[in-house]
């Protein structure tokens, strides 16, 4: 029997077997330079024809869903999956969230409900499960914060060891999580890119399995599961647009790949429009989609999870965006903060800045009259607001304490009541 899956290099199309540890395509990797987006990210390819033969066409999606999509995952059994709820997050319909009289549908996919409170658990779970099936005990990742706290938490659940390299100035909550989950943490006095290079050396020298985003091809496979869920939660319908907060472009590629596989399996007939939302202070993926030569804008944004100088998955994302007519938008830090406050105050969903950026992207599209009436619009809320309290402080004004008597409380409430009446 043929292997369940193999890898194809998105740049030179070389193929590699799926049964060994492999990260970037060795042929392409040899020419990579640190200041350029890497070539050689691998796409995981299954035997789609065979999967179509296994199931009746009319019920193929429902049956795959019953099998927890195992035929489309590079592992042998769901037994190796962490015993935690990964993904399967709520999709809330909130049409009125940006004001009454909008005649389109808005859905918020709340991935802050993952065990470590971010979308990254989808990738960590799969990488960890693969390691478990292949007898690897220790994993390593470089991270701006969420990938590291996610891998640390998932490894704790799986009784695996993890080593996390993070820039020393990552948000305190994310560093705290890594420590609480009992991982080996190595704060690096340098950038995320420095941490990335070092983590690659660590896997080479110590043999630890590397979870780095857009380096380990399985990160994309874990992330694609969100598309299956959205399709299911919309009553087996394809949304018109999905707003995806984008840094390195692994979530973006994952969302595309999930829908593309449904297309290949005959489950759907059209692709949604995927909107890459980036911070105006770090627009390095969307601004380089059409450039012959990569040009970097030095990143400066409060949205640390999408603050990326050299997007590691640019090549794959360019391919997807061209093929399926993707769209893009950038949002300023002020727009992100405003969107974050609005979203919290009107839905009870408090998102970290990167996630609020996706919502800000929807707001921008709506303001410019770009959303069709009757359309279904999904926003990926990728991380919890509790992960980064510092960045929203400029919005906030904690009143001074009052004397413990009812008169003082009444006085203190006046300002609030008049504002809300
Ligand atoms: C990692 C992350 C992103 C961006 O994902 P990429 O794959 O780097 O584009 C967005 N939001 C949150 C909360 C993240 O942690
Ligand atoms: Zn290659």
Description:
The chain is of the alpha/beta class and about 425 residues long. It has two domains: about 5-65 and about 120-215, Rossmann fold; about 90-115 and about 220-395, Rossmann fold, CATH 3.40.50.1100. The chain is about 35% helix and about 15% strand. The strands form three sheets. It has a six-stranded mixed β-sheet with strand order 4-5-13-10-11-12, with helices on both faces. Strands 8-7-6-9 form a four-stranded parallel β-sheet, with helices on both faces. A three-stranded antiparallel β-sheet has the order 2-1-3. Helix 4 (about 120-135) packs across helix 5 (about 145-160), helix 9 (about 225-235) crosses helix 10 and helix 12 (about 335-345) crosses helix 13. The mean pLDDT is about 95. It binds pyridoxal-5'-phosphate (PLP) and zinc ion. Zinc ion binds near residues 9 and 27. Pyridoxal-5'-phosphate binds next to helix 10 and helix 13.
């Amino acid at each position: 029997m043929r292997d369940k899956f193999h890898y194809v290099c998105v740049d030179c199309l070389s193929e590699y077997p799926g049964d060994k540890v492999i990260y970037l395509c060795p042929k392409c990797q040899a020419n990579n330079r640190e200041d350029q987006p890497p070539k050689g990210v691998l796409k995981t390819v299954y035997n789609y024809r065979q999967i179509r033969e296994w199931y009746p066409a009319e019920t193929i999606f429902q049956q795959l869903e019953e099998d927890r999509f195992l035929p489309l995952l590079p592992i042998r059994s769901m037994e190796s999956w962490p015993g935690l709820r990964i993904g399967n997050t709520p999709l809330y319909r909130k049409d009125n969230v940006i004001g009454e009289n909008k005649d389109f549908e808005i859905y918020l996919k709340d991935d802050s409900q993952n065990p470590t409170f971010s979308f990254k658990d989808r990738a960590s779970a799969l990488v960890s499960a693969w390691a478990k099936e292949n007898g690897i005990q220790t994993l390593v990742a470089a991270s701006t914060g969420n990938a590291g706290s996610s891998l640390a938490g998932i490894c704790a659940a799986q009784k695996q060891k993890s080593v996390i390299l993070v820039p020393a100035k990552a948000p305190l909550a994310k560093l705290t999580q890594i420590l609480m989950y009992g991982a080996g943490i190595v704060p690096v006095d340098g950038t995320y890119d420095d941490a990335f290079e070092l983590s690659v050396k660590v896997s080479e020298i110590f043999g630890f399995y590397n979870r780095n985003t857009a380096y380990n091809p399985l990160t994309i496979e874990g992330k694609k599961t969100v598309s299956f869920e959205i399709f299911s939660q919309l009553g087996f319908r394809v949304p018109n647009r999905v707003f995806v907060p984008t840094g390195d472009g692994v979530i973006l590629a994952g969302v595309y790949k999930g829908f593309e596989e449904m297309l290949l399996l005959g489950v759907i007939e059209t692709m949604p429009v995927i909107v890459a939302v980036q911070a105006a202070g770090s627009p390095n993926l969307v601004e380089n989609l059409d450039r012959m030569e990569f040009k970097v804008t030095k990143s400066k944004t409060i949205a640390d999870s999408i603050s990326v100088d050299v997007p590691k998955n640019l090549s794959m994302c360019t391919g997807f965006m061209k093929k399926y007519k993707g769209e893009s938008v950038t949002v300023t830090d002020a727009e992100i903060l405003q969107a974050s406050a609005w979203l919290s105050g009107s839905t009870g969903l408090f998102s970290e800045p990167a996630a609020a950026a996706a919502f800000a992207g929807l707001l921008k599209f709506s303001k410019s009259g770009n959303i069709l009436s009757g359309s279904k619009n999904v926003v990926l809320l990728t991380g919890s607001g509790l992960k980064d309290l510092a960045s929203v402080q400029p919005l906030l004004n904690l009143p001074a304490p009052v004397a413990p008597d009812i008169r003082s409380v009444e006085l203190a409430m006046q300002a609030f009541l008049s504002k809300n009446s």
